[in-house]
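ok, trying the design again with the full structure, not the truncated one.
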């Protein structure tokens, strides 16, 4: 059963119960009031009849006559003639037989106490019976016909039942319409959830209003947006993994093909010393490329799996180590290396910061022309941090490629990068190192004018570096 039908049935049950209970209380109260009023009037009439009969009996006593059955019978006949139309009477000897009775057959004074009132039903007629003991061992029973009250109550019940049916039918129609209207947003939410489950992650409900259903709609849309973002992130991750595996396979295949080819030539053919030296040099160059690739991959994996413990590091020592490590590379490419003088201390890992700057200097040297200068940067940032990085005046990076240069194996100029021994992992490794330090690479570049790459580090007090 649908929720709208359940809601309609529940509302109708509550309404029917409320109407029935209210109607019963109303009808019962009205009937009780009318019955009490009629009982009071009948009791007054019974008292008048008692006074009348007792007056006749007193008159007989005053005349010295005995109260015989004949006297009671005559008194009963006179009393019946004076009684109201709805009343019948009976005169009994106390504990004896009836002297006079207009009462219905089967009604007697037996079992009725003086001053008691009870209801007696015969066929479709209902009587209110009153009993009073009088002088001379006489007992008067008067029975008043109250059938009209019960008939009126029955008519009232039937009218109420008819009215209740009409009201319930109208209420049922209104309840069904209201229930469908109230549950329509739930149907939309259910439909939207089914569509999202089927893959339509951009589906939204956007129900208006400020009630609980509208709030549920907004929460549902927020949840759907979060699911869509997560799915898109997973799809991007899968795509990046596929791209990574494809690029990684290609990067492995290129040097391995050269190594296998030259090795096979050296194994199967005879060369003069110069050709052997050239082939051996090619094998050595490609093997170094594989070694560099494996080292950088291991560093990326280690940074992804192990949390980094930051310690106080002297930038002066880091810059000194960078200059010592990259000076041969700068000389090979014919560029000048300018190192800053700095006394700043930062929180970080000295070896990783050295690797970051060495990679940046190597990339800058490869992108620069002979005679140009590569500068290592160190300075304060407006927010109190410390900026370190590398600047060059080389070939620069196209604007559309800046966002992708930190992706593994992405190379702006693949032929130049492979010729110089590049693998496309340098900036990806730098980005991971920056993230491990709670920062990220900031790249500013203009094609043909050079590139500036910086990372923001957290400063610390000097003299706290640990071994």
């Amino acid at each position: 059963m649908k929720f709208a039908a359940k809601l309609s049935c529940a509302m109708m049950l509550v309404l029917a119960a409320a109407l029935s209970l209210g109607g019963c209380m109303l009808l019962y109260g009205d009937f009780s009031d009318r019955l009490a009023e009629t009982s009071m009037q009948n009791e007054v009439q019974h008292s008048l009849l008692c006074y009348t009969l007792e007056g006749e009996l007193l008159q007989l006593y005053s005349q010295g006559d005995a109260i015989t059955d004949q006297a009671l019978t005559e008194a009963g006949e006179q009393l019946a003639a004076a009684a109201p139309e709805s009343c019948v009477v009976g005169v009994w000897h106390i504990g004896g037989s009836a002297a006079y009775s207009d009462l219905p057959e089967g009604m007697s004074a037996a079992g009725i106490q003086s001053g008691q009132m009870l209801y007696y039903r015969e066929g479709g007629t209902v009587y209110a019976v009153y009993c009073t003991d009088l002088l001379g061992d006489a007992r008067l029973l008067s029975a008043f016909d109250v059938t009209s009250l019960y008939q009126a109550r029955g008519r009232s019940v039937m009218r109420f039942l008819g009215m209740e049916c009409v009201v319930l039918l109208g209420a049922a129609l209104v309840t069904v319409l209201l229930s469908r209207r109230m549950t329509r947003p739930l149907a939309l939410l259910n439909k939207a959830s089914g569509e999202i489950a089927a893959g339509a992650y951009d589906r939204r409900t956007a129900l208006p209003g400020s009630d609980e259903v509208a709030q549920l709609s907004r929460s549902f849309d927020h949840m759907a947006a979060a699911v869509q973002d997560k799915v898109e992130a997973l799809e991007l991750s899968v795509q990046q993994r596929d791209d990574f595996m494809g690029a990684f396979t290609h990067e492995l295949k290129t040097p391995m093909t050269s190594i296998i080819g030259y090795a096979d030539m050296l194994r199967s053919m005879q060369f003069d010393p110069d050709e052997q030296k050239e082939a051996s040099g090619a094998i050595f160059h490609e093997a170094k490329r594989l070694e560099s690739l494996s080292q950088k991959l291991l560093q990326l994996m280690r940074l992804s799996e192990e949390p980094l413990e930051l310690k106080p590091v002297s930038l002066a020592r880091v810059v000194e180590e960078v200059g010592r490590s990259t000076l041969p590379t700068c000389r090979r490419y014919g560029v000048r290396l300018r190192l800053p003088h700095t006394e700043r201390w930062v929180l970080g890992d000295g070896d990783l910061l050295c690797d970051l700057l060495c990679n940046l200097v190597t990339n800058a040297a490869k992108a620069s022309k002979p005679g140009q200068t590569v500068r290592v940067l160190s300075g304060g940032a407006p927010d109190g941090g410390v900026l370190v990085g590398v600047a060059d005046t080389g070939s620069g990076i196209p604007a559309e490629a800046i966002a992708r240069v930190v992706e593994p194996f992405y190379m702006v100029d693949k032929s130049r990068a492979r010729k110089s021994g590049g693998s496309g992992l340098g900036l990806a490794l730098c980005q991971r190192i920056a993230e491990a330090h709670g920062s990220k690479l900031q790249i500013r570049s203009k094609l043909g004018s050079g590139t500036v790459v910086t990372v923001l580090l957290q400063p610390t007090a000097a003299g706290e570096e640990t071994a």
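Keeping the full-length input from now on. The chain has nine helices and twelve strands.
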